[in-house]
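Sample A.
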Amino acid sequence: MSVVAIFGAGELGGALASKLGARARVREIRLIDPAAGVAAGKALDILQAGPIELSTVSLTAPADDAAALRAVADAAVIVLADQIGTPGKPPVEIQGEAGLTLLRRIRGANARAPIVCAGAQQAWLIAHAAAELGIAGTQIVGSAPHALASALRALIALELNGSAHDISLILAGTPPDGIIVPWHAASSQGSTLDTLLDAGTLRRLESKIRYLWPPGPYALAAAAARVVEALLEGSPRTFVGFVAGAGNAVAMPLRFDSLGRARVLDLPALSAMQRSTLDALLPR
């Protein structure tokens, strides 16, 4: 059981802390935000719900920047979420140059822990963290594409009048408009989707992908929680996550080992157009 540090106590960060607490597979969650008092109040709310959800996970909120850096020093996984907004404004995902500055400080305090970017708007940050800060691609990933894959599985299940849990698929590319779905490698109960659904239905499903992006904070939190747990424990499950690409991050199928490392999986055979599109996104 390990320590997870979540930077950002906005809607996504709070939902992730609650989700991890309810699943009770970590020892301690540290919820870090510049609005430390609000973060502490949110941590208390989640803690008070703990007995109802039978959770015994410790949840703390550091009081200042110095305490935040101490809190991250022994974290097994670090998550970047969304910071609490100013009054009257919504939470803002940690991204851009401010995100790079924060990552530089985080790596100064803890250079070992893998980093999960839980938001849907952090693709640029992932790519530039690798290019400018030298963070290995196995050490920083984005979990938002896994939420997108889950939403697409739900739509497919409706078409098949079945369960999303029975559907296996992977995605690649850049959401919302540059996503590639290898339908011939996706399946439900042993049959590939390109044999279960006609070409018109598959095209209609593909056309809906852009409307599934960005996922909402609770869907993002659920995806991030599963990626965090996989990084802590290892998992044979295939995830879809952002990895550093050429100037931006690219969604690819991933697996995680118990040492907190991500491994990009080989894609099934793609059409010439799909392969050309993907090759342009990946670093050379």
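Sample B.
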Amino acid sequence: MNRTIRVLIVDDSPSMRRLVAHALRTDSSIVIVGEAGDVPSARQAIKDLSPDVVTLDVEMPGMNGLDFLEKIMRLRPMPVVMVSTLTSRGAEATIRALELGAVDCVAKPSTDDPNSLDCLPRKVRCAAASSVRSAMSAHPPKAVERVHYVPSDDIVAIGGSTGGVEAALAVLSAFPANGPATLLTLHLPAPFTGSFVGRLGSLCRMRVEQAADGAPIEPGCIYVAPGTVAHLEVAGGSRPRCRLVQGPAINGHRPSVDALFGSIARVRGPRAVGAILTGMGRDGAQGLLAMRQAGAQTFGQDEASCVVFGMPRAANEVGAVGELVPLSRMADRLLTAASAVTAGAQT
């Protein structure tokens, strides 16, 4: 029997609360225990109702959603799914919310995407199963100093989903300016990818770009898969470049982590390093296995530091993970694995 998930809806718009409630009621395992139209009411409802999950509007009157989220995550951490407008301001606030510890996000319906809330029940179920902790990226870690990274032509590939924004920011903000060429695929809705690229760029020493088809893959740069639009793959052998593939979803996702990892296994073989971060589902497991079988070093985020251990667990179960690593040590291990010293020792 499915566990009942108790949800509190927080949004200042009565019509939006109705739309969110309608979307959630399509799942019989979800029960709406309350609604709130402002922060004081939401605060009291959380105390009185103890919901399993809160859906929270990014922009609220009085205290905004971000300020409220920060207080929640500091005083009473719980699973929160952000509901955001598609404006530039809304997208930037959503990325900041994910950085502060929100589990996931959905876009409010628009003329371009009137069915954007269809995925909300799945995201709420995932949030209810997550391991939530106070935000760890509000003050990003300093660049790793104890690893003597020697530049090489190795490519680092990273994939993640639920909780992946926070995890990716923690890892990549610790890479040095001359770090290895890095490709990143997250299950992030398209409207929020640009804001994520901007936020990542503001925290990283490396250059950060949204991947473009045919772009050369160079050291010192991080390439982020465009959300929803296409799969990010690697092509070109000795002169690698980004390839965007407008194919069907893989494992229910576009972009897919399996698509990225699988292409690197085919094109780069042992001249690559792979890491799978927190996330729900199995996307990335088979691709990471292909990378390991091709001679690449592979890592998975350990259960204790994951918001959701699903993706690393699935990869570990099929033998794709060479080493499970706490998030706090992931940058160290990736830089060491990609270093020319390590590469030279293997050849």
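B remarks: The first strand starts at residue 5 and ends at 10. Residues 135-145 have pLDDT under 50 and may be disordered.
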